[in-house]
Design goal:
- This protein has about 725 residues and is α+β, with helices and mostly antiparallel strands.
- The protein is built from 20 helices and 23 strands.
- The chain is about 30% helix and about 20% strand.
Length: about 725
């Protein structure tokens, strides 16, 4: 297997345990001259049999009274190799001579030389010139010296007895005698001769390069066994990416994370530039390193969120910065949590994508419809073997499986769409004529503007250990990227997009073992960004203004501005955004002259009323939003509205807020059960302890808590925004 420039990337030993490369038509000039000088000086003038060589062999054999020369031409040796080295008797020799003449008639001298050099034995289990140069010199055939060419020319003469590592002195003498002949026939100069004499013999065979172990295995599985395959791989990028992956892999192994994979694609051509199927140690498979992770289906985590965001932008169901809920939720037992176990109340959709928040995207998927999203994912090329109902809302949080190969194709298709390339061809690791049938194209028809805003949000993702400071460095290169972590910390993903490259990374354990350190940000992200630094920077995508329209957008809500929005601005949005909703958060309320109360015509003179536009969130969203946005201005209370106590604590009660935490029989710390009653028997309460979310209760409101000794505060809020707060103290730990 070779890279795009013809450099050897890897090879596998044949079934008969011989290192044998396919026939090569390129014969190094030094080797050709050395071979003809040593084996067959009349090669270019004889018809397959050299009468002078035959006479010379007869004379030499008669004098020695044994066979010391066979008189065979290179063509005759090709015939003998093709006939599996028949016995060296007169009858077989005659057949070889006849067939040699036939070969000379049918084939060119150049082709006969290539047959010989590709099939001749070079000692040990090395067959053919290409295999020999790599095994003995660790280099391409075109780079050999005169001393090396002479050595290769003499090796097939008696490969079983003399080769590097066996009878080296005899081998050296034979090589030097050939160098003398090359000097005498003026093939080499005296300086070249003297330099060649001082070159030592190779001490031991070099290992054949294995720079693409997993890609080589894949090519064999896909029908290229025994063939010379020129790939699209860029060797320099391949080696650099391999070094990065394995450097990180060594550090990850300290946390018992043993596998990582990376893929680099060229956006325009579809060429695979680097293919690292797994970390090193591939042949031993002691940690699953032989598994080609690039093709392995793994839980997608959050890596599909940008696709949902772009689909909704494309269809006008979402504006880039539109506020979406970020509050505790429970859809028929499915209660996802954000990675940070926190809530914002509401958050702009672009920030939810940048921060990869789970809850807002579950809300988005619920709004969009998981059935429709399932269909659009299938259009992009994501393999979803089950029906939409199998995945349901988990589709956006890792319920589906994907792999680096098809995931990279999807994001490459998005990049091409943004570059207005309509030929969303598949990508491949060899040339387009042998592209594998499983390649898929991006065919989701997402508009360039939707992709632009998606990549814009992805470009804002904070880089590990740098937060947002990376933008301050002139050397920083732009990249739109997204991470993902599967449930149970089993899979860490990172996908990066630039106008020229797609970078995809996976980190985890092939066995499926989860580890706390397996996260997209901490495990996969650093590898992706290190790969990004070695790739050339060619700027950023051009803004697709032709696919955008300008509309007034509310600065606070991100929706199309309504007449109640005091602060709005004209922004570029995707063309279909004209279908989007107008802002529902801004409302006009009527206040008294002092603006202390909301009033109506029933309790206040209309002529004295003052109208004000307020940004008003639903109660539960408001509760969480105000915690992070103290500047949020809540509307004044309604005038003359009675305040009723709608809920209260049963335990602990407000008169004696001291709590005792029991010790269980096994010695572990127990829990206390807090209870609240609510006037509405169907109410839902959201519980917090010292600002940390505990969970929700419905109907019967009992919550287990296990606070440490000291002072604490518990808060519960219902769907209408009514809250109840109790400060209490854990006085001591009770023993059973």
């Amino acid at each position: 297997m070779k890279d795009a420039n013809g450099y050897l990337l890897g090879a596998t030993i044949s079934n008969d345990q011989q290192w044998r490369f396919p026939v090569s038509k390129n014969i190094p000039e030094k080797y050709r001259k050395a071979l003809i000088t040593y084996e067959d000086k009349n090669f270019y003038i004889h018809p397959g049999v050299d009468p002078f060589a035959v006479v010379r062999a007869v004379v030499l054999n008669s004098k020695a009274k044994r066979i010391v020369s066979g008189g065979s031409t290179i063509t005759m040796q090709v015939v003998r190799l093709s006939r599996k080295n028949k016995k060296r008797i007169f009858y077989e020799k005659l057949i070889e001579a006849i067939l040699s003449v036939k070969y000379e008639i049918n084939y060119s001298k150049k082709y006969l030389l290539s047959l010989y050099s590709s099939h001749a034995p070079f000692g040990g289990n090395v067959v053919g010139l290409d295999a020999a140069t790599w095994r003995y010199f660790g280099r391409e055939p075109d780079t050999i010296s005169w001393a090396e060419a002479a050595l290769l020319a003499i090796l097939p003469n008696n490969p079983a007895m003399i080769y590097p590592g066996k009878n080296n002195q005899q081998l050296l003498d034979k090589r030097n005698r050939l160098l003398v002949r090359l000097l005498k026939n003026k093939t080499i100069t005296d300086n070249e001769y003297q330099a060649a004499l001082f070159e030592p013999l190779p001490e031991k065979p070099y290992p054949i390069p294995q720079n693409t172990y997993h890609l080589l295995s894949r090519a064999i599985q896909e029908g290229f066994k025994g063939k010379s395959l020129t790939t699209t791989i860029d060797r320099d990028i391949q080696l650099s990416v391999d070094s990065i992956v394995n450097r990180h892999g060594k550090n990850l192994a300290n946390s018992r994370i043993f596998n990582a994979a990376a893929l680099v694609l060229d956006v325009d051509s579809g060429n695979v530039l680097a293919y690292i199927g797994n970390t090193t140690g591939a042949q031993s498979d002691n940690r699953g390193n032989a598994v080609d992770i690039i093709r392995a289906a793994r839980s997608s985590g959050s890596i599909l969120k940008p696709l949902l965001y772009s689909c909704m932008l494309d269809e006008g169901e979402l504006l880039p910065d539109q506020l979406i809920p970020d509050i505790p939720l429970n859809f028929q037992g499915f209660a996802p949590q954000n990675f940070n176990n926190d809530f914002s109340g509401v958050i702009p959709a672009s920030q939810a994508l940048t921060k990869s928040l789970n809850i807002p995207f579950v809300y988005l998927l619920h709004s969009y419809g998981y059935q429709k999203f399932h269909h659009r994912l299938k259009q992009t090329g994501i393999s979803l073997p089950y029906s939409p109902s199998h995945y349901s809302l988990t589709l956006i949080l890792g319920g589906a499986e994907t792999n680096l190969w098809e995931l990279s194709a999807v994001y490459a298709g998005m990049a091409r769409t943004l570059k207005y390339q309509t030929d969303n061809k598949p990508f491949f690791y060899a040339n387009k004529y042998i592209a594998h049938h499983t390649n898929k194209t991006f065919d989701a028809h997402i508009s360039p503007a939707a992709v632009w805003f998606t990549f814009k949000a992805m470009k804002e993702v904070s880089r590990p250990n740098e937060e947002n400071r990376w933008r301050d460095f002139s050397s920083s290169k732009p990249i739109a990227w997204k991470t993902g972590t599967s449930y149970g910390n089993k899979d860490a993903w990172a996908i990066g997009v630039t106008p020229q490259f797609i970078i995809a990374v996976w980190v985890g354990n092939a066995s499926g073992e989860g580890r706390p350190e397996i996260t997209g940000v901490t495990a996969a992200g650093p590898i992706l960004l290190d790969i990004h630094t070695i790739l050339p920077d060619k700027g950023w995508f051009s803004e697709p203004v032709a696919d955008m329209i300008e509309m007034p957008v509310c600065k606070e809500s991100g929706f199309i501005a309504s007449r109640f929005c005091d602060a709005s601005e004209v922004r570029k949005v995707p063309r279909n955004s004209e279908r989007s909703d107008t802002c529902q958060f801004h409302k006009t309320i009527h206040l008294d002259a002092d603006e202390k109360y909301q009033v109506t015509s029933e309790n206040y003179p209309v002529s004295k009323m003052i109208q004000r536009n307020y940004f008003i969130l639903p109660p539960i969203e408001e509760y969480f939003y105000r915690k992070k946005n103290p500047s949020y201005k809540k509307p004044p209370p309604e005038k003359d509205k009675p305040v009723n106590q709608i809920m209260g604590f049963v335990y602990p009660n407000t008169k004696n807020p001291k709590v005792f935490i029991p010790i269980e029989l096994d010695g572990s710390k127990g829990k206390s059960i807090f209870e609240i009653v609510h006037r509405n028997s169907a109410s839902t309460l959201y519980w917090h302890l010292d600002g940390e979310y505990l969970g929700e209760t419905k109907g019967i409101h009992k919550m287990q808590v296990s606070p440490a000794k000291g002072k604490h505060e518990v808060v519960a809020v219902d769907l209408d925004g009514n809250t109840i707060t109790l400060k209490f103290e854990v006085d001591s730990i009770m023993t059973p």
